[in-house]
Amino acid sequence: MRWEDLDINSEKLAGHLASFCFASRKAIAPYFRQPLVVEGKADNSPVTIADKSAEAVIRQAIYNMFPEHNVVGEEHGGQITGEIDWVIDPIDGTRAFVMGKPTFGTLVALCVDHRAVASVIDMPMLDEMFIAVPNHTSTLNGSKISTSDITDLSQARICSTAPEALDEEALQKYMALSSKCLSSNWGGDCYNYALLAAGHIDIVIEHQLASHDIMGLVPVIENAGGIVTDWQGGEVILGKTSSLIACANKDLHAQVMKAMR
Known about the structure:
alpha+beta, D-Maltodextrin-Binding Protein, domain 2
């Protein structure tokens, strides 16, 4: 199965992605900065009714539009088919959400043959929607975006969500790399990748991720001119990849890979 084998128009797909997220915003907004019951999951990550409601809304919207497609989500599960899979993370950054921070996002990706071909990173409280579809440049609220032209590691801006998300060896590598960069910052969740696609951040590195954390990020960055691989420089594959190195361009990525060895 290839993207070319699907009878889906890219422009219409962009509209569908936007409509999914506008619907999920309505599910999330009533709970933002309101008293919430926060449950703990088996992996010690938090979940709220907002996460569950937003995923349910997106799932239903996908089924309404593409009833023959498979859906996999963080909160309501599902099995990867490896053919046509929609992957949902309804609230990437639930910890930020429950603290009232607006830097959480919604990730939706369309994957074909284990590769993400289209996606959206939606920042509901910031009213910023980053969309990527095949054969088109990534957009932010409809306007084209591009990654930065920084190719010198010493001038690069690097981010990662949290040091505790990296194991000891990974943290040592990250700290050694960040010391070679112009500036570094913790926090941000999926927003870091969106800002990389828009040219404000140059490198994002994370480790020990799940598929729902990953797949929605890749097309947005790649269609803006960036590159995303695993820590070995390999292709990002649904159900297999668990670490990410995202860079503004191939030259910068090559320097990062060399520094991370």
